Amino acid sequence: MIGLDTSTIIDMVKGVTSIKEILEKQGPIVVNRMSYIELMFGINPDKPAHKKEEEIYDALFEEIPCYELNKEAVKKASLLFHELKKKGKTIGEADCLIAALYLTNGITTILTKNVKHFEYILGMNVVSYN
Prior knowledge:
CATH superfamily: 5'-nuclease
């Protein structure tokens, strides 16, 4: 299984072909609730075109297994954040939560175009695309 980063979900909906090629080799996919939150914050209710995007994301999150936020993942995210900070490597809290949601559920591979957001997380294999 491979976890999808928020950027990957956006690009997958846009039809980026390199994602499809990678996923054919990687096997089943999973998503996470933090990515859904990020996606929804990108939806502007004043823009009619965004309503269609919201419907697409809603359908996608109903079809693909989605890991939900829980105490274990939040604590793991905090630990990751502070461990990286000690090493002088900082990434956003949302990315720490995304990584933690996958790691606490046994998913050790993430597909992203933002390699720098995940490359320093121990135990996380990062697969990138163009």
